[in-house]
Amino acid sequence: MKVLFGGYTDHASQGLYEAFLDQQNPNPSITNLKNIIQLQRPTYFQTDGSLLFTISQNDNQAGIASYRLIGQNYVQIDAFYHPGAAPCYLALSKNKKLIYTANYHLGTLSIFQYDEQGHLQFISSCQHTGQGKLKEQDAAHPHFFNQTPQGNLVSCDLGLDRLDFYTFDGQQLKHVANYQMEAGFGTRHVRFSVDGHYMYVVGELSSKVNVIQIDETNWNFAEIDSVKTIPESYSEHNGAAAIRISNDDKFLYVTNRGHDSIAIYRILANHHLDLIQRIPVYGAFPRDFNFNSQQNLLIVANQNSNNATLYKRNQKLGTLVPIQKDFYVPEPTRVIILD
C-alpha cells in the first residue's frame, strides 16, 4: 500500500513524497521513497479517491492546490493563492465536496468547494481576533477547522484558548457557540467520540488533553477530565501536536514534540483517560501520525530528524511496538496511509 508524506521544504525536501508499506509481510516495513509532486511546503494534505488537496506556498503567495492522479502521476488541476502565509490545516467533507482550512498566521477560517475533477471555488471565510496570555498567543491562531458529528463546524484557536462552533448554509458561516478553555491551554486539535457526545481537545502549549461533554442541540458543555501528555517531572519545552482515536473508541493517541513521544490512553466507560503507555518516537519533533485501515500499524512523522517510525499496534491493548525506526523522509509534518 502507498504512504504519502508532506512537510516543510526549507532544506532537503522537494514537496510531497510516496513510499510503499508492505503490511502483508510478517515484518512490515516502509520502503521506496520517491518525490511525486514538487511544490513548496505541503505541510498538510488530504485525499479523496484520485484527488489530492494540499496546503502550498508559491513564493510570496500561499494557499491550497489540487492534484489528480492520472495514470501513475499527480497532475495539478487548480490552485487558490493569496498574499501572506499558508494555512496550517486542511480537511475535507467528501460527501459535500467541501474543503475547510485554518490559517494560523492570518487568523482566518475558509471554505472551498471542489468538483469531481478537482477544480476549486472559494465560498466563504471568517476572521478571528483577540489574544491570549502567553507570548505564543499574541493574536488569534486557528489551528483546526472541520465538521462535528452533527454536521456543524468547529475550529480550535491556539491563540484564544477557544473552540468556536459554526453552521454553514452553503454560502455563509454563522457563529453559534464557543467553549473557552483555561488560559494558556493552546487549543490545537479536537477529536470526537463515536457517539458525538464527547470532545477530546489537545492543548499544544499546556501539553494536556481535556475531555469535554458536548450537547450540539443546546450548546451545553461540561469538562469531565484533564490529563498531561508528558511526565510531571519533564521540565523541557514540549508542544503536544496530533491527536487520534482508535475506530473502536477505546484508545487515544497524542504526539509530544520536545519529549518526542506518543502518549497512549485507554478511554474508560466514563470517558476519563487512563495512561497506558508513553513510547519514544525514535526521532525529533513528531508532528502527524496515522493508522492503516486495519489499525494494526501506525506511522509517525518526525520533522526535525527527517525520519518516520513504524509501529505494530496491539488492537486489543492499544499499545505500540516499534518495528522500523530509521526510514528517511525529509522534513515530514503529515502522513497518510492509503489502503
Account of the protein in words:
By secondary structure, this protein is mainly beta. The chain has a domain at 43-228: YVTN repeat-like/Quinoprotein amine dehydrogenase (Methylamine Dehydrogenase, Chain H). Helix content is 0%, strand content 59%. It is built from no helices and 28 strands. The chain has strands spanning 2-7, 15-21, 30-38, 45-48, 51-58, 61-70, 73-83, 89-93, 98-103, 108-114, 120-127, 142-147, 153-157, 162-168, 173-180, 187-192, 198-203, 208-215, 220-228, 239-245, 251-257, 261-267, 273-280, 286-291, 297-302, 307-313, 320-328, 332-338. It has a four-stranded antiparallel β-sheet with strand order 3-2-1-28, with no helix packed on it. Strands 4-5-6-7 form a four-stranded antiparallel β-sheet, with no helix packed on it. One of its GO terms (cellular component) is cytosol.
Question: Topology, pairings included?
Answer:
Layout: E1 2-7, E2 15-21, E3 30-38, E4 45-48, E5 51-58, E6 61-70, E7 73-83, E8 89-93, E9 98-103, E10 108-114, E11 120-127, E12 142-147, E13 153-157, E14 162-168, E15 173-180, E16 187-192, E17 198-203, E18 208-215, E19 220-228, E20 239-245, E21 251-257, E22 261-267, E23 273-280, E24 286-291, E25 297-302, E26 307-313, E27 320-328, E28 332-338
Family: Belongs to the cycloisomerase 2 family.
Protein name: 6-phosphogluconolactonase
Pfam family, one: Lactonase
